[in-house]
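Input.
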Amino acid sequence: MIDIQMTDLHSFFMWVLVCFSLTLIVTDGTIFEKWRTAIRNRSDFLGKLFSCPLCFGFWVGVILGYTYLSPTNCLLLDGALGSGTSWMLYNFFNRSAS
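Output.
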């Protein structure tokens, strides 16, 4: 695990943006549609995970916190932060698009 501290607001917002972007691409992007369908056909649990921005955002937050930067220095809180911000941004952009 790399021990890098987030010292400024810019790094925090970049972390949130990366987490949201990865979550959105995997759960809603057409580039991963075939993979989501294949996963859903093999496992109902994993199919739901790869289609849910709240669920997938948690794991993206944990992985980002472990491998790159941790805004909270706690993987559980990184997951919660990734999940919450991904879900909020996902709903914000979905509602503003319709």
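The chain has a mean pLDDT of 88.
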